[in-house]
Amino acid sequence: MENHFEGRSKDELKGVSLLGNQEVKYKTQYDPSILEVFDNKHIENDYFVKFNCPEFTSLCPMTGQPDFATIYISYIPSVKMVESKSLKLYLFSFRNHGDFHEDCVNKIMKDLIKLMDPKYIEVWGKFTPRGGISIDPYCNYGKTDTMFEGMAKDRLFQHDMYPETVDNR
Fold it and tell me: Where substrate is bound, by residue (predicted)?
């Protein structure tokens, strides 16, 4: 079988089944089991991977009305990395999930920590206004007893210090 994924062996892609699969079903109920990982080929380097997800939707648990957001996920990988198509399908699984904005971003972060055990991760939800107010929850995590634990505290304390420069709407 020809390898269409340049630079990756079959062993490195073991467990990655969604990428390139044209028959994937989109789940509309929250399902973290969709998430897949692959090995970080550059474990000796500390670097950020950033996902911008401008089409996130979930439901208000009280009214059932849709909530729309851009979800920003940034992480510094350790051994494992999240596969992007599985992340897209995972985020889509929130489509009919009822949770408050703060719960959604914390749930996303915790699921990704459980999946890949990153050195550092942050998730920022920039929800569109409903009823004249927008809610933009931010959460982060740095691996305990590493420099990334301190980094998480610093980034949390400095987060959104100049919100007037942030424009996603």
Answer: 82-84, 101-102
